[in-house]
Amino acid sequence: TDRILVSPSVLASDFGRLDEEITRAASAGADVIHLDVMDGHFVPNISFGPPVIKSIRKASGMLFDTHLMISEPMRYAKAFADAGSDHLTFHLECPEPTGDVIAAIREAGCTVGISLKPATPAEEIFPWLDRIDLVLVMTVEPGFGGQSFMADQMAKCAAIKREILRRGLHVQLEADGGIDAETVKTVAAHGANMIVAGTSVFRHRAGIETAVAELHAATA
Ligand code: DX5
Ligand code: ZN
């Protein structure tokens, strides 16, 4: 298998030292930075929005993978793109029409991902696979960092991977939630080529550098 891409979620970092935390993750070999946006409506938690992303954009040249856990991604796509996001992932479960959200994100100049909550079946993403760059399978209920990995999402992960391969598409498969140096092995074995890790990276006892190295090593 290919080398897995590690996307640390700054949700678990020290917000008072965001620049330093992101710089450390980058020098540790993180491939992408994951930015969890929550609106207190689509999920029962509020995190940060475009101004914070704009500010960290100045300090980092990394690829910004922005995860929009919000009810109105179409309304805010341009704001998140202008703030410096490279990629925008929205939720299939949000009330806006999927095709329109995809178009709005493309129009804003970002690559497009769609995320599935744990209760959403694999098949619901199949009609959209040839129009997007990434599928994000949630391995926790979106809303909070630090939750336990849901191994029951692995069949879904594998089913989506099979469909991507069957149709010969170039779509990334990312998993998010409860991923550490142990659970990452399961995730990689079920076809994901990219993982999000918050707690296991930014709250690692031995430091961010060790944490990122362990995630890469576990799937080498
Ligand atoms: C959950 C977020 C995740 C979360 C991951 O709503 O989408 O990205 O921050 O955090 P950990 O790795 O702590 O589960
Ligand atoms: Zn996320």
Sheet having the most strands: 8 strands, parallel
Strand order of the largest sheet: 1-8-7-6-5-4-3-2
Order of helices and strands: EHEHEHEHEEHEHEHH
Full CATH superfamily name: Aldolase class I
Pathway: Carbohydrate degradation
InterPro entries: Aldolase_TIM, Ribul_P_3_epim, Ribul_P_3_epim-like, RibuloseP-bd_barrel
EC number: 5.1.3.1
Binding site for a divalent metal cation: 34, 36, 67, 176
3D structure, described in words:
The chain is 33% helix and 19% strand. With 220 residues, the chain is α/β, with parallel strands linked by helices. It has one domain (5-218): Aldolase class I (TIM Barrel, Alpha-Beta Barrel), CATH 3.20.20.70. Strand 7, helix 6 and strand 8 (194-197) form a beta-alpha-beta unit. Helix 3 runs parallel beside helix 4 (98-107). The longest helix has 13 residues, at 154-166. Zinc ion is lined by residues 9, 34, 36, 67, 176, 196.
What secondary-structure arrangement, pairings included, does this model have?
Elements (H helix, E strand, L loop, with lengths): L4 E4 L9 H10 L5 E6 L11 H8 L6 E6 L3 H10 L4 E5 L6 H10 L3 E6 L17 E5 L15 H13 L5 E5 L6 H7 L4 E4 L1 H4 L5 H11 L2
Parallel strand pairs: 1-8, 2-3, 3-4, 4-5, 5-6, 6-7, 7-8
Helix pairs in contact: 3-4
The structure holds D-xylitol-5-phosphate and zinc ion (ZN).
D-xylitol-5-phosphate (DX5) binds next to strand 2, strand 8 and helix 7.
Function: Catalyzes the reversible epimerization of D-ribulose 5-phosphate to D-xylulose 5-phosphate.
Pathway: Carbohydrate degradation
Keywords: Carbohydrate metabolism, Cobalt, Isomerase, Manganese, Metal-binding, Zinc
